[in-house]
Amino acid sequence: CRQLFRSPSMPSSVIRPILKRLERRPPDGDAPTPVKPKRRRSVTGTPGEDAEPVGAGDAGGGGSQPEIENLLANDHRELIGDFSKAYLLQTVEGKHQDLKYISPEMMVAVLTGQFSSLIESCVIVDCRYPYEYEGGHIKGAVNLPLEQDAEEFLLKKPIVPFDASKRVIVIFHCEFSSERGPRMCRFVREKDRACNEYPQLHYPELYVLKGGYREFFPQYQSHCEPQDYRPMHHADFKEDLRRFRLKSR
Predict the structure, then answer these.
(1) Fewest Cβ atoms closer than 10 Å to its Cβ: which of 77, 100, 141, 186?
(2) In 3D, which of 50, 13, 231 has the Cα closest to residue 136?
(3) What is the pLDDT of residue 29?
(4) Can you give the residue ranges of the Rhodanese domain (predicted)?
């Protein structure tokens, strides 16, 4: 019986109540007559019985087929924001569990065109302050340090692929991709949701570059321009930092 219900895609919390009901059932011959209708609906019925799948027409119990299908249908953890397809890029674990992170290696794979047959446009959003961006950034990245900048660039006139079979993806990062990048990623998703009918989105596929520019630059300087790295807390830009922090608030 256990093997019949063990499916890798089926949540164990759904399987367990079904197994317990089967284990508590008395052996054949000892069962009282009222149990017979339930045996007729059980997957474990004998070949001669007119067996039905568990839960078919059975309002009681915690493991009915509609419930299981509903659970699986609503598991969107690995689907992009509009639930239309799976994420294209391989992701890694990051600081924020609700966001999808990619490694610097995966970023380079995108930059070098390894996904060109599937991606029409990749927008790299550098959320650092302008003096950081000017001191060195990933080639092709657009500098959007403030929320109003991101809203105007991405949502005022959304980027739409000419080829409907291809994707538009957005990758956010800051110096460490610890605060500013993730915050901007959430902001864009929130605003995108607000101007679309659920679950439609202009940008359903958002990523965050793990480790940010700080981790990317030492490994892939050739993909940066200028080939340099200016930290946020640079001694020569204290006044710029203070001014942009006030604007961010």
Answers:
(1) 77
(2) 231
(3) 46
(4) 118-225
